[in-house]
Amino acid sequence: MPADLLDLNRIPRHIACVMDGNGRWAQARGLPRTEGHRAGEHSLFDVVDACLEIGVEWLTVYAFSTENWRRPRDEVRFLINFNEEILLRRRDELNERGVRIRFVGRRDWRVPKRLIRRMDEASELTEKNRKLTFTIAFNYGGRAEIVDAVRRIAASGTAPEKITESTIARNLYDPQMPDPDLVIRTSGEYRISNFLLWELAYSELVFTDTPWPEFQRREFFAAIREFQDRDRRFGGVDGGG
Ligand code: IPE
Ligand code: IPE
Ligand code: MG
Predict the structure, then answer these.
(1) I need a surface site. Which of 104, 111, 142, 155 has the fewest CB within 10 A?
(2) Domain hosting residue 96, numbered range
């Protein structure tokens, strides 16, 4: 679907993607799972391009979950190195295109210091950009994020009766991040897998059977079209009132 079929006045402000199906895509071709992750890079940057084209302000992608450490050691190592390599290879181009790179996730002992350094470099390099905020969720878990927020609130000595939803929202990994309007998950799995649990309370969800390495902007635009056909009520009734 081409972009001109979209209502440009109702482009979601924040789109989040669960980039799923890399491993199965590769295995179906007789390739090692890691080749699927490699092939997914093309889709990721096609989606970034599409966001820049139509003016999406925030794009968040799930790159590695707090549960993905359960995978075979070689695959985990590949994913760490590949993420680092992509950051190095793509950061200048993203910077020139006005993309602000950010990260959400737990920075625990399992994340190599070198990768953390690359993350910080990419964030600092691009921090003044405003066209698109591109957030990479790495070693991210929605429950861990809420636990970390609660720990910070408890450590601050806030009285329990003073804790509101906005106290929690202010203590998430990126307090500036607006809640996603649209969440897209590829590869035919109909679940959230611990992604943005707090933030997606009222997000519209779109699932597609296409594996991530085959997901391209045409389908991305189709998901946005589907979003535009939905009626968001936020617990109210049609027509307000
Ligand atoms: C998503 O693809 C990428 C990551 C989780 C890092 P998968 O690796 O989960 O691919 P499938 O779901 O096993 O096919
Ligand atoms: C979610 O996909 C995590 C990422 C895409 C990074 P998974 O493939 O890990 O999720 P499950 O295991 O199918 O729920
Ligand atoms: Mg998967």
Answers:
(1) 155
(2) 10-228
In a domain, 117, yes or no: yes
Atom of ligand 2 nearest to the CA of 20: 5
> How many angstroms separate the alpha carbon of residue 223 from the centre of ligand 2?
20
Task: Pick the residue whose CA is nearest to atom 1 on ligand 2.
Answer: 193
Decide if 17 contacts 63 (C-beta within 8 A).
no
Q: How confident is the model at residue 241 (pLDDT cuts 50, 70, 90)?
A: low
Return all residues near 97 (Cβ < 8 A) that are at least 6 apart: 52, 131, 132
Token pair 């006005």 is found at: 98
Determine the distance from the C-alpha atom of residue 153 to the mean position of all C-alpha atoms in its chain, rounded to a whole number. 25
Residue 77 lies in a domain: yes
If DSSP codes are grouped into helix, strand and coil, which group holds residue 151?
Answer: helix
The question of whether 68 is a catalytic residue gets the answer: yes
Of 16, 22, 15, give the one whose Cα is nearest residue 79: 22
Q: Which residue has the tokens 């989606």?
A: 47
- Residue 237 resides in a domain: no
What does the radius of gyration of the chain's CA atoms come to, in whole angstroms?
18
Report how many domains make up the chain.
1
In a domain, 238, yes or no: no
Can you give the pLDDT at residue 1? Answer: 80
- For the packed helices 33-54 and 73-96, what is the interaxial angle rounded to 10 degrees? 20
pLDDT tens digits along 53-105: 999 999 999 999 999 999 999 999 999 999 999 999 999 999 999 999 999 99
AA identity, residue 145: E
CATH number for the domain spanning 37: value is: 3.40.1180.10
Q: Which of 59, 54, 18 is nearest to 212 (CA)?
A: 18
